[in-house]
Amino acid sequence: MQATSMYFKARAREKLRDERLQQALARLQTNFVDARARAIAELPDFEGFREAAAQIRERALADLDLYLEEFEKNATARGAEVHWAATHQEAARIVCEIARRHGVRKAVKSKSMVSEECDLNAALEAAGVEVVETDLGEYILQLAHEPPSHIVAPVVHKNKDEIATLFEHQHRRPRQSEIEALCREAREVLRPHFLTADMGISGANFLCAETGSTLIVTNEGNGRMVTTLPRVHVAITGIEKVVPTLEDLATLLRLLPRSATGQSITNYVTLSTGVKGEGDLDGPEHFHIVLVDAGRTALLGTALQPMLRCIRCGACMNHCPVYQSVGGHAYGWVYPGPMGSVLTPAYVGLENALDLPHAATLCNQCGVVCPVKIPLPELMRKLREKQMERGLRPWPERAALRAWAWLAQRPRAYAWATRLGARLLKRMAGEEGLLHRLPFGGGWTDGRDFPAPAGKTFRELYRSRGGS
Amino acid sequence: MCYDHTTFFCPFCFPSAVRVGLFVTCLVDLLRPRIGFAALKLLEAAGCQVIVPATQTCCGQPGYNSGERPGAQGLALKLVEEFADCDYVVVPSGSCAGMIRAHYPELLQEFPARREAVERLCAKTYELADFLVRVAKLEAVPGRFAGTVTYHDACAGLRELGVKRQPRELLAKVPGLSLVELPGAEQCCGFGGTFAVKFGEISTRIVDRKCQAIEATGADAVVLGDLGCMLNIEGRLRRRGDRRTRVLHVAEVLAGVDGEL
Asked: Which of A280, A366, B195, B257 could make a disulfide contact with A376, Cβ separation 3.0–4.6 Å?
């Protein structure tokens, strides 16, 4: 997916004014935030699970090469074929090659964020393969030619009426207005695709090294159909998703749905291990697993390594005041919200996502809810430091920060400057005690007044009262 | 220990009272000095000997959060020196106290010679309400307030230092004051330091939700413990045309110092 993160500010402005989006975002609170709070309250010792999950993920990353080799060995032993892709382009090329080898004309997909990273649909279509998204949200977006705006609920930015209109135009059927009817209609349209597709493409929430299995969690039946009905199954995922054992998976599964949708478990948890065996009624004849690096190993051993623990639950964005205000499209790449503010600059380049690490209040709500304890604000701070070191921030910002540090390290000059500043601002504010415009502070005063200083500084008053 | 004076700070039991360094913070110094005097009054009411180092300026947070690490380090080292002699350091700001306690060890890790001094500083630094409740065990507060207030939990104090019950316990001691809980009290007000200027429109949208919640409580004042958030909330309330709801620092209410200065 082409990154447009450089336009965060302009996009955010547009999204703030989009009334329908704002109404849709308001639902995040009840659907995800409140639901998560209830679901984690049900789990005795949630903090203990969180700590255990963070350790499982960290252990896997510490010996990532070993676990990946073990995964490959066990997957291959069960008849799967494992492919390694260093870049997004290579991953897309590998999947197209698999499609060509098996003479695939139609592929059905279950949701995969890595395939969004790789622009897989476009590559397959260019190779003459028809691609049908089967996750309801992704299907709606495919019809609307839009990228997802949330990693768990990709279509969270649209309301029922928009979807009804879209279906009416695309399906050329009478308009339905009820959610059940819309779902039924989508199911009717999608069902023949499952039965006629030659290839099913899924992602993987986790890879189990011990068994060589891929695992997906879904709430619609489409995930199971995609992985079992077509004769070829391709699972495409990031290399960091590997977990040592099935027991580790059990721990992570207690946290992922709870953190994502507030469910204790999803409707379906599908483990895919190898190809259809002799006497098996269903399952794919060919199982290809594409393991994508695309910037991941570059994070190992750096300050950003904790980001690779991410299990893609979306809790950080659901709880983020910035995401809640502008939605996912403003972030301009596959991953929005706090996770995106770290992942996007890390994967597409710091200079291509200048605003993202700064587009956070550092309130740490994301860090508190993260089920694998990723210190997201700290990682954003690290990226800010890197930008500053590389001189990527605008010079007035750099100059202002340096000037402040210079001044504040010289108490006499500082005292003089703050005295002057306090008086000046007080005078500018007048009787009312409020500044309606600030020089260089339009960002503040466009929407807010600035309460004026009292006139004298604390240190001045303290001294005049006989303090030292 | 004497019969009546059960606090650690009782000057009769402990003639050489505990020396508390007050870090006023740059925003309080420049914008609302009476918060500094309120903190001073409260610490003295708790029996502390308060020291205000004259050379103090800024804890380095703006630079640290913006990625300007060298400047932030300079300021942090300066602060470590300035408060080396105190038994405690008390800050009327959750984010500046949090900056010291939660971030100085990381920020100053390139200065191993100062490690011990930094650890000592972290261990003795407290946010004001936290200090008054957990360390000084302040029984009675000097202030009084006729009316209803609501409390906003500013992010850094809440999530970096666990300041939640302390200000509420103290506010409950203020004669005349009744506290009404703010729905979504733990949600960010949208300040975020330079965020409020760089992303003014998003920040305004976030603080607007906060202001709506505050106004819906019908409280006479919203009380909180961080000046940055106060400026943000007050600035938006006024722009919304609300001249009635006061925005007060918890120290101002507790000390009864909320008039002109």
From this structure: A366
Q: Which residues of A touch B60 (CB under 8 A)?
A: 405, 408
For residues A243 and A58, the answer to whether their CB atoms sit within 8 Å is no
Residues in chain B closer than 8 A to A463 (CB atoms): 54
- Classify A352 in phi/psi space as left (phi over 0), alpha (psi -120 to 50) or beta: alpha
Q: Are B57 and B90 in contact (CB under 8 A)?
A: no
For testing the chain A interface, which of B86, B152, B191, B201 should be mutated: the one with the most A CBs within 10 Å? B201
Report the sign of the C-alpha dihedral through residues A50, A53, A59, A62, in that order: negative
Buried b / exposed e along A410-429 (16+ C-beta atoms within 10 A):
ebeebbeebbeebeebbeeb
Phi-psi region of A430 (alpha: psi -120 to 50; beta: other; left: phi over 0): left
Whether A451 and B31 lie within 8 Å, measured CB to CB: yes
Residue B256 Ramachandran class (φ > 0 left, ψ -120 to 50 alpha, else beta): left
Which residue in B56, B72, B235 is closest to A449 by CB distance? B235
Query: Which of A239, A354, A379, A356 lies closest to A298 in space, CA to CA?
Result: A239
Q: Among A203, A238, A207, A208, which Cα is nearest to A222's? A: A203
**Cα distances (Å, whole numbers) of residue A442 to A7, B96, B235:** 20, 25, 13
Say which residue the tokens 């009054």 belong to.
B41
Yes or no, beta carbons of B29 and A458 under 8 Å apart: yes
- Assign A448 to helix, strand or coil: coil
d(CA A428, CA A446): 17
Does any CB of chain B come closer than 8 Å to the CB of residue A405?
A: yes
Structure token digits, residue B188 = 């960010």
Judged by CB atoms closer than 8 Å, whether chains meet at B195 and A450 is answered as no
Q: Which residue of A has its CA nearest to B243?
A: A432
Say which residue, B127 or A438, is predicted with more confidence. Answer: B127
Mean pLDDT per block of 10 residues along chain A (468 residues) reads 92 96 92 95 95 98 98 98 98 98 98 96 98 97 97 95 95 94 96 97 98 97 96 98 98 97 96 94 95 98 98 98 98 98 97 96 98 98 97 93 96 96 94 90 94 94 82
Contact across the interface for A364 and B155, Cβ inside 8 Å: yes
CA distances from B226 to A148, A285, B151, B230 (A): 37, 63, 12, 6
DSSP state of A32: I
Q: Which helix (H) or strand (E) holds B84?
A: none
Please give the helix or strand (H or E) that residue A375 lies within, else none. none
